[in-house]
């Protein structure tokens, strides 16, 4: 693992897609390179890529992911875009409350 990405191991993950055009890559995108080992892209990722993208990880979760060590298990939970926005708003609210408490 490095600041570019977190490589996962999954023996069943393969893609039949080849010859993809390169396109922009977002923070947290999960790419599937030809070796079948997914990569979650982090802060220092490339800006464009041509591998299939499986999904993406919420930005708040990539910070926790970056703290994990090799061999840790990673679990995914599907959320809607509306739920993702609600989760982010709640986290921002909690952070603002912590900041207010620290000012006292």
Q: What structural category characterises the helix and strand content? A: alpha+beta
CATH superfamily of the domain at 5-68: Cyclophilin-like
What is the third-level CATH name, the topology of the domain at 5-68? Cyclophilin
Strand content: 15-25%
Provide mean pLDDT, rounded. 86
Strands across the major sheet, in which order? 1-4-3-6
Q: Helical residue percent?
A: 25-40%
Distance between the termini: 39 Å
Query: Quick one: CATH class of the domain at 5-68?
Result: Mainly Beta
Write the H/E string, N to C. Answer: EEEEEEHH
Description of the molecule:
This protein has 2 helices and 6 strands, in the order ββββββαα. It is an alpha+beta fold and 104 residues long. It has a domain of 64 residues: Cyclophilin (Beta Barrel), CATH 2.40.100. A 4-stranded antiparallel β-sheet has the order 1-4-3-6, covered by helices on one side. The longest helix is centred in the C-terminal third of the chain and has 23 residues. The chain is elongated, with a radius of gyration of 16 Å.
Write a brief caption for the model:
By secondary structure, this protein is α+β, with helices and mostly antiparallel strands. Helices cover 30% and strands 16% of the residues. The strands form two sheets. It has a four-stranded antiparallel beta sheet, with helices on one face. The chain has a two-stranded antiparallel sheet with strand order 2-5.
Walk me through the topology:
Layout: E1 5-7, E2 23-24, E3 29-31, E4 39-41, E5 48-49, E6 53-56, H1 59-66, H2 81-103
Antiparallel strand pairs: 1-4, 2-5, 3-4, 3-6
């Amino acid at each position: 693992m490095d600041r570019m990405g977190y490589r996962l191991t999954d023996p069943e993950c393969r893609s039949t897609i080849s010859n993809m055009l390169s396109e922009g890559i977002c923070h947290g995108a999960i790419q599937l390179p030809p070796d079948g080992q997914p990569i979650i892209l982090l802060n220092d990722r490339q800006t464009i890529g041509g591998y299939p993208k499986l999904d993406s990880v919420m930005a708040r979760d990539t910070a926790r992911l970056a703290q994990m060590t090799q061999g840790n298990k990673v679990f995914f939970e599907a959320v809607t875009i509306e739920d993702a926005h609600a989760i982010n708003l709640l986290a921002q609210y909690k952070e603002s409350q912590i900041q207010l408490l620290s000012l006292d």
